[in-house]
Amino acid sequence: MTEWYADDDFWARIYPVLFSPELFARASVEVDAALRLAGVSRGRALDLCCGPGRHAVPLAQRGLDVTAVDLSPWLLEVAGRRADEAGVAIEFVRQDMRSFVRPDQYDLVLNLYTSFGYFSSEAEDMRALKNMVESLREGGTIVIDTLGKEALAERLHADSPPIEERDGSLLIQRVQVVDDWCRVKSEWIIAHADKVERVRFEHTLFSGKELRELMNWAGLSDVKLYGDLDGRPYGPGARRLVAVGRR
User: Fold this and answer.
1) Strands 136-146 and 241-246, how do they pair?
2) What global pTM score does this model have?
């Protein structure tokens, strides 16, 4: 059976609500924030799990030499069109993050929008993380942006599932934490004007402490945690878990 993250039909179905116009509009601000946290303004950048090129395009617009990697040919096709429309040159590569590695090539590796922790075994996640570290030049920086355990715990205090309107559709999100807070299973119910769709996916949850320790183990030093790409502390009120480490 094809895993959800390797299923192009999954991405095509969820794309309108997952990658809303508002989300694309925030991409430039997010890239500037990530570059500030990383202390990088030039050189070679790897956007790992690039999706539709939401961050790869603004990275290239800022003069970085960008490689964008994703497993989905459908998303890469969308990303390629967006790069062409923006008039920027990006190297797009279709490959699994568990196998993509280019030793000592990049000044910056970005893994954003909860793209770390897809796999059901810790060994596979660690292989992907080791690949990121090996692909860095000495002194290079990794920025990982995910949904931390602590931030999710705050959200789960709500009395009902989050409901919001996206791209003309109604989105209801249901979340179930399983395996002693190690994994989270999500179900999105998407109500269009003429149909209702359900999509399911899951990923591993990390606390700030756990993610820092994994990054240290993989060979990164001076790992700092933030509550969002804007640099807020990782504490009460954190919206995301952002970890920045240097090789």
Assistant:
1) antiparallel
2) 0.95
Q: In the β-sheet with 196-204, what is the strand arrangement from edge to edge?
A: 163-166, 169-178, 183-191, 196-204
Q: Which two tokens stand for residue 87?
A: 């008039």
Q: Residue 158 has what pLDDT?
A: 57
pLDDT-flagged residues of the chain (< 70): 157-161, 167
pLDDT tens digits, one per residue of 63-117:
999 999 999 999 999 999 999 999 999 999 999 999 999 999 999 999 999 999 9
